[in-house]
């Protein structure tokens, strides 16, 4: 385990090689969520994609990482030092970076990724997702964003985002920033079929 300071940002239109996965570390979830997380790990590995995620060894984080590693994926964890015990940092990853705080964790994960997949989660997952959506709206990060809607988990969030469009806090075009799948098996196609986003998005960030 070590710290690193260099980062890179994927260019517009780049092929998807590495996917950031946002996921929860809770151990008290319905088995269906855990199974979907493991399936996502297998699906991404079989698609030849590497993964960067929060580095945890429990909950959806651990299930996804274990399955991806078992199927040959390169899995890169990023965890703040103060969370090493709480999230039980995974001990078998391809690489683990220890960073100073949550902001650095989020920046490093997203800046290293060509795309983002979000599994169900709590307030930490929401915060990560909304930061990525905000950066995409401003053209600062342009990769595909896919929500895995296990058990209809994100139905209310999607309704809320669409309500923001209806009330003109967001534009109709902004609904193209994300896509939703019911099953992890649909993630590779959703990533490849995502609407091409550009850094010029800042031109219509305001309504």
- CATH class division: Alpha Beta
* Average pLDDT figure: 91
Reading side by side through the largest sheet, how are the strands ordered? 4-3-2-1-5-6-7
User: How many individual β-strands?
Assistant: 7
Distance between the termini: 45 Å
State the secondary-structure class.
alpha/beta
H-E string:
EHEHEEHEHEHEH
Structure description:
The chain is globular. It has a seven-stranded parallel beta sheet, with helices on both faces. The chain has one domain (18-193): 3-Layer(aba) Sandwich (Rossmann fold). 39% of the residues are buried. It has helices spanning 31-46, 59-70, 102-111, 123-137, 155-166, 187-192; strands spanning 18-22, 50-53, 75-80, 95-99, 115-118, 145-148, 179-181. It starts with 17 loop residues before the first strand and ends in a 15-residue tail after the last helix. By secondary structure, it is an alpha/beta fold. The protein is built from six helices and seven strands. Helix 2 links the parallel strand 2 and strand 3 (75-80).
């Amino acid at each position: 385990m070590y710290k690193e300071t260099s980062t890179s940002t994927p260019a517009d239109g780049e092929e998807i090689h590495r996917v950031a996965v946002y996921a929860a570390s809770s151990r008290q979830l319905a088995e269906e969520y855990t199974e979907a997380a493991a399936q996502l790990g297998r699906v991404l590995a079989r698609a030849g994609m590497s993964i960067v995620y929060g580095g945890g060894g429990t909950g959806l984080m651990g299930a996804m990482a274990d399955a991806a590693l078992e199927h040959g994926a390169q899995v890169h964890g990023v965890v703040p030092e103060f969370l090493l015990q709480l999230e039980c940092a995974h001990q078998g990853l391809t690489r683990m970076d220890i960073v100073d705080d949550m902001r650095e964790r989020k920046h490093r994960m997203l800046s290293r990724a060509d795309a983002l997949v979000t599994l169900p989660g709590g307030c930490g997952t929401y915060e990560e997702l909304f930061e990525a959506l905000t950066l995409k709206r401003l053209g600062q990060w342009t990769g595909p964003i896919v929500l895995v809607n296990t058990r209809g988990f994100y139905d209310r969030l999607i309704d809320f985002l669409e309500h923001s469009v209806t009330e003109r806090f967001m534009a109709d075009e902004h609904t193209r920033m994300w896509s939703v799948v019911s099953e992890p098996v649909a993630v590779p196609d959703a990533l490849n079929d995502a609407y091409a986003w550009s850094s010029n998005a800042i031109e219509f960030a305001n309504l």
